[in-house]
């Protein structure tokens, strides 16, 4: 084996991948060529020295590493980018749903109690409780409720606004 | 679909730690690599994610080691190596600096091959497939990389011999 050919086998030998069939010729050349032998030994020593830089002992999948990665951009790791653009829309939808549920619940309560006109109506705030005046307002309020319970809230507000002025 | 970084996190940390030797420095590099990975995958995910991550990690680690050396004035020169050699113990810090300094002179491909072969114990065929190169090219890169490290370390050994 010539020195030029030896060069080609040196990488395989250093990488522990020298073919079994090439090993005798390779070792024979090492024995007879001091230059190539010194070259090979110095390269092998360098590799051994590099391997001294040992692998970490602790597992990297530890809470600290996970915390570091999650602290950077948690959304980027788990959610698609367009998820963030819909944030405002999500908030608005949530408020709308909450308002609708509250109003529906209130309407159900009113509808489920058809005899509410017979219940004593409490005096409305902001209204002067003149005996005759308050009776007429209460009657108006009860009447409004009987006709259309859904308008009770609006009726209340209007009576509170205009009825107080009237008295 | 964007590939996940989690399966590679341990390897990235391992490569960084081998070069830097410090847990928190390695974590910093993992963080930097993750940000670069996220930016890269936003446009086009690498075809060989592991090879890409290895290259980026080694480059970042070398940069970090260079900054550390500049800050702490630990850059190895033959005189300082001779001084520390008299302690009798293995000076891992200067060894890392030497290895990183040698790897700094290599091309990205040579660096990637060296780390893959030495630290990941991959075969030449596997590295060739990962880097989309021929096996003979991989072997050439490997030989050049090992020679560069040898030449850098030779200055260290030469100084120790003189002392």
Descriptive keywords:
heterodimer; A: mainly alpha; 0% strand; B: 163 residues; mainly alpha; 8 helices
What is the string of helix and strand elements of chain A? HHHHHHHHH
In whole angstroms, the N-to-C terminal distance of chain B is: 59 Å
Q: Quick one: biggest sheet of chain A?
A: none
Structural class of chain B: mainly alpha
Count the helices of chain A. How many?
9
Number of strands of chain B: 0
Secondary-structure element order of chain B, as H and E? Answer: HHHHHHHH
Instruction: Sum up the overall morphology of chain B in one term.
Output: globular
What is the count of helical runs of chain B? 8
Strand fraction of chain A:
under 5%
Report the average pLDDT across residues of chain A: 71
What is the residue-mean pLDDT of chain B, rounded to a whole number? 80
Sequence stretches where pLDDT stays below 50 over 5 or more residues of chain A: 74-78
Low-confidence stretches of chain B: 75-89
Biggest chain contact? A-B, 33 and 39 residues
State the oligomer.
Answer: heterodimer
**Strand residue content of chain B:** under 5%
Helix percent band of chain A: 55-70%
């Amino acid at each position: 084996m010539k020195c030029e050919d030896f060069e080609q086998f040196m990488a395989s030998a250093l990488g522990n991948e020298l073919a079994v069939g090439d090993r005798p010729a390779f070792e024979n050349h090492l024995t007879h060529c001091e230059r190539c032998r010194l070259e090979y030994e110095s390269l092998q020593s360098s590799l051994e020295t590099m391997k001294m830089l040992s692998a970490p002992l602790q597992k990297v999948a530890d809470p600290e590493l996970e915390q570091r990665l999650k602290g950077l951009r948690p959304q980027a790791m788990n959610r698609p980018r367009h998820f963030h653009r819909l944030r405002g829309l999500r908030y608005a939808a949530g408020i709308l749903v909450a308002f609708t549920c509250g109003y529906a619940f209130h309407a159900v309560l009113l509808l489920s109690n058809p005899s509410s006109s017979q219940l004593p109506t409490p005096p409305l705030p902001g209204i002067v409780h003149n005996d005759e005046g308050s009776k007429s307002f209460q009657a108006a309020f009860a009447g409004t409720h009987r006709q259309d319970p859904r308008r009770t809230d609006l009726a209340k507000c209007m009576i509170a606004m205009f009825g107080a002025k009237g008295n | 679909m964007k590939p996940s970084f989690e399966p590679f996190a341990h390897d990235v940390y391992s490569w960084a730690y081998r070069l830097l030797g410090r847990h928190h420095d390695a974590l910093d590099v993992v963080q930097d690599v993750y940000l670069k990975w996220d930016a890269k995958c936003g446009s086009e995910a690498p075809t060989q994610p592991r090879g890409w991550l290895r290259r980026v990690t080694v480059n970042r680690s070398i940069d970090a080691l260079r900054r550390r050396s500049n800050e702490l004035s630990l850059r190895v020169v033959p005189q300082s190596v001779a001084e520390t050699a008299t302690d009798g113990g293995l000076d891992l810090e200067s060894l890392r600096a030497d290895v990183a300094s040698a790897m700094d002179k290599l091309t990205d491909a040579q660096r990637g091959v060296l780390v893959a072969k030495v630290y990941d114990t991959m075969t030449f065929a596997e590295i060739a497939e990962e880097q989309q190169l021929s096996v003979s090219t991989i072997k050439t890169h490997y030989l050049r990389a090992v020679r560069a490290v040898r030449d850098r370390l030779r200055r260290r050994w030469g100084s120790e011999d003189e002392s």
